[in-house]
């Protein structure tokens, strides 16, 4: 899991406070505008671990999304089967084995300025988990969605572990709603049912 968001090929971005009433509609509309015109297999990779409150944003989002049974999106990374730093390589290999030319949306938590806490940020391009910690992790995603869960700058592991669960749950539900809205707009004739892959069985970090 990354403590700070480091992005590759970021050509467009939208960011909104998660409590804004029109946030889900506006961010989902923006993301839909970035989707390819030809049919693709859509995969959401929710990165993080349930052993740190702030870092649980990804797994919580994956669990909330899976509960909605999306029709066109496969989900990797839930509270029960998290995708984190020690298994990310294996999961990315698994995704490319199971899906032909997947279009990947990565979801992760990040830390930021005080004024940014509570914002949900969606950007084109890949998320680079672990870049702030010099971890050799693969870039993930054609698009990424991050939630700023707390303040960066000092003792960031501790900051993540002491993040309020209420804001993390609220943001995870909003991100899941964004992804459900996107799934409802994917109307290709070939339906790809959502699947939470369980081939990798490891303890989360």
Automatic annotation (TrEMBL):
UniProt xrefs under SUPFAM superfamilies: HybD-like
GO BP term, pick one: proteolysis
Transmembrane stretches, start-end: none
Pfam families, per the entry: DUF1256
Keywords: Hydrolase, Protease
Protein name in UniProt: Spore protease YyaC
Gene: yyaC
Organism classification: Bacteria, Bacillati, Bacillota, Bacilli, Bacillales
Molecular function terms, GO-annotated: peptidase activity
Entry-linked InterPro entries: Pept_HybD-like_dom_sf, YyaC
Source organism of the structure: Ornithinibacillus salinisoli
């Amino acid at each position: 899991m990354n403590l700070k968001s480091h992005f590759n090929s970021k050509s467009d971005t939208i960011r909104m406070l998660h409590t804004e009433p029109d946030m889900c509609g506006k961010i989902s509309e923006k993301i839909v505008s970035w989707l390819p015109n030809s049919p693709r297999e859509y995969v959401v990779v929710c990165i993080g671990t349930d052993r740190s409150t702030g870092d649980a944003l990804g797994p919580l989002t994956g669990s909330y999304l899976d509960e909605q049974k999306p029709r066109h999106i496969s989900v990797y990374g839930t509270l029960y089967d998290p995708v984190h730093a020690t298994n990310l390589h294996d999961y990315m290999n698994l995704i490319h084995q199971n899906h032909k030319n997947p279009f990947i949306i990565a979801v992760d938590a990040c830390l930021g300025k005080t004024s940014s806490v509570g914002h949900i940020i969606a950007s084109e391009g890949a998320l680079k988990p672990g870049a702030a910690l010099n971890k050799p992790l693969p870039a993930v995603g054609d698009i990424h969605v991050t939630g700023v869960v707390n303040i960066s700058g000092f003792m960031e592991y501790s900051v993540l572990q002491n993040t309020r669960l209420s804001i993390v749950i609220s943001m995870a539900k909003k991100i899941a709603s964004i992804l459900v809205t996107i799934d409802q707009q994917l109307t290709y004739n070939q339906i790809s049912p959502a699947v939470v892959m369980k081939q990798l069985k490891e303890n989360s970090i």
